[in-house]
Design a protein that fits this description.
The chain contains eight helices and 19 strands. The chain is α+β, with helices and mostly antiparallel strands. Helix 2 runs antiparallel to helix 3.
C-alpha cells in the first residue's frame, strides 16, 4: 500500500490504492469519496475545541486484506459492531474465502450470511450460516425459483462493493442490491430489486433462506419452522467451527446456531411461501405452505442435502421504480426463541435501517476515539492506523448470555 500511495505522488486513501491492486468489485470512487470526506471532517473538527469525539470510523477501509492472492488476509469486511456476534456479509462459493468474502469478481455469491469469523483462515472457513439470497423466478412461477446454491449463485457487478464500520453493500449482476447493518446479536438486511430485472422475469421479489449450508459444508441436522401468520422463520442447526476436532465421531465439538427472521413490516406482505429441498445433482422440491421440517445429517455425494424456505413478497416498499424488501434478523447460540428476543430487543419494532447503522457507527467511534492522532498525521498513516485498530475490535465475538459454558462448545 505504501508503494502504491507514493506512486500516486501524494498521501491517499486505501480505496485509491485499490486501483493499483486491480480490484474490479470494490466501488473505488465511492470508497475514495467517503474516505476523503472523512479526512476533511476530521481536520475541520480538530480546529473546533467544542468537538470531543471525531468520526474516525470514516477513516476505516474494511477492504484492506480482502485481495484474492497467495497470501490472503482472510478478513471479514461485512457489517458488525465492536466484538459483534452477528457479523453479516456475503458468502462466496467456488473459491477460497474463509471469512466469506474476497475481491475475486469471478467468484459467485451464494448468500448473505449472518455469522462469520475474521482473520482465522483455515481452508474450509467457518460461519456463513443461515444465508439469505434474493432471486427472481421466471413467470413468477414458485416451482421455477432457483433455490439450491448451484441454481441461485451469481457473480457481482463491477465496482459495486462498499463498506464502512457497521454497514456493507454489494450489487449482483442481475442488478439486485444487497445491504446489511447490525447490532450485537441481530441485524437488518435490505434487498432492492431493479424494476427492469423484475419486469424482464415477470416476477415478484423473492428471497431464498438457506437452512443447511455453511462455508465448510458441515451442517449436521436441525429444524426449521415457518409461522406464516406472524411472517417468521426460525431455523437451527449444528456445525463445525473453523478450528478444532472435525471428525464426525466428535459431535461435542460442534456448535449449535439458531436464527429468527421476521418478514412482515409496513406494507410488505407475503405473496407466496413454502419450504424447499434439493442437491447439486438436480433434486429440487418445493412445498408451498409447509410449516415444519426436521432433518438429520444426510449427505448427497460429499455435501449435506440443501434445504430452507422460499418467500415471494407483495407490496414491497418502492425506491423510485424499484422494489425494496427489508427483513429483521436475530441470531443466538441458545435457542430460536432467544434469537427472536434478541432481534426484538436490539432492533425494535421500527426496523429503522439508518438508525441501526448510525448506532453501530457511534459504537465504533467510541472505540476508535480511545487513541487520538494529531490532525497533522498524514492521510496514509491515519487511514492505516484506524483501519488496523478497527480490526482489533472485530474479534472475539461477544456471546454474553448466549454461550452456556462449560458444558457446550461454541464458536
Amino acid at each position: 500500500i505504501r508503494k502504491t500511495t507514493k506512486k500516486h505522488g501524494t498521501a491517499t486513501t486505501a480505496a485509491r490504492a485499490l486501483r493499483k491492486w486491480g480490484s474490479r468489485v470494490v466501488d473505488v470512487d465511492r470508497m475514495d469519496g467517503l474516505l476523503d470526506d472523512a479526512f476533511k471532517r476530521w481536520r475541520a473538527d480538530a480546529q473546533n475545541a467544542s468537538v470531543t469525539q471525531f468520526d474516525y470510523a470514516g477513516l476505516v477501509n474494511p477492504f484492506i486484506g480482502t485481495e484474492a492472492n497467495n497470501n490472503p488476509g482472510n478478513v471479514f469486511p461485512g457489517a458488525s459492531i465492536p466484538f459483534g456476534m452477528a457479523k453479516m456479509g456475503i458468502d462466496l462459493t467456488d473459491t477460497y474465502a474463509p471469512a466469506g468474502y474476497q475481491d475475486d469478481i469471478n467468484a459467485p455469491v451464494r448468500s448473505l450470511g449472518a455469522i462469520h469469523d475474521s482473520g482465522t483462515g483455515s481452508g474450509d472457513g467457518s460461519g456463513g450460516i443461515f444465508g439469505v439470497m434474493p432471486v427472481v423466478c421466471p413467470g413468477d412461477d414458485f416451482y421455477k425459483c432457483p433455490t439450491t446454491v448451484e441454481a441461485r449463485k451469481i457473480t457481482r457487478a463491477k465496482n459495486k462493493d462498499a463498506a464502512y464500520p457497521g454497514y456493507f453493500t454489494t450489487t449482483l449482476n442481475n442488478s439486485i442490491t444487497m445491504e446489511t447493518t447490525t447490532t450485537r446479536r441481530a441485524g437488518l438486511q435490505r434487498y432492492t430489486f431493479d424494476h427492469k430485472t423484475l419486469a424482464s422475469a415477470k416476477s415478484l421479489p423473492h428471497l431464498v433462506f438457506d437452512w443447511t449450508r455453511d462455508n465448510p459444508s458441515s451442517w449436521a441436522g436441525g429444524t426449521i419452522d415457518f409461522d406464516y401468520q406472524k411472517g417468521r422463520i426460525m431455523m437451527n442447526g449444528s456445525w463445525y467451527s473453523s478450528f478444532g476436532v472435525r471428525t464426525q465421531e466428535y459431535e461435542a465439538n460442534r456448535y449449535k446456531g439458531f436464527s429468527c427472521i421476521d418478514l412482515l413490516h409496513g406494507s410488505q406482505t407475503i405473496a407466496k411461501a413454502g419450504l424447499w429441498a434439493g442437491d447439486r445433482f438436480g433434486q429440487d422440491t418445493k412445498l408451498i405452505g409447509q410449516t415444519h421440517a426436521n432433518l438429520s445429517q444426510n449427505f448427497i455425494g460429499s455435501d449435506p442435502i440443501q434445504s430452507g424456505a422460499l418467500v415471494s413478497f407483495a407490496n414491497a416498499a418502492k425506491v423510485g421504480c424499484d422494489s425494496q424488501v427489508t427483513i429483521r434478523y436475530g441470531v443466538s447460540y441458545v435457542s430460536a426463541a432467544q434469537a427472536c428476543a434478541n432481534a426484538e430487543e436490539e432492533i425494535g419494532p421500527n426496523w429503522d435501517f439508518a438508525a441501526v447503522e448510525a448506532a453501530s457507527r457511534s459504537q465504533w467511534n467510541e472505540k476508535l476515539n480511545r487513541i487520538v492522532l494529531s490532525p497533522n498525521t498524514t492521510d496514509e498513516v491515519a487511514r492505516l492506523f484506524y483501519s488496523s485498530m478497527y480490526r482489533s475490535f472485530l474479534s472475539p465475538n461477544n456471546a454474553t448470555l448466549e454461550a452456556p459454558f462449560p458444558t457446550k462448545t461454541y464458536v
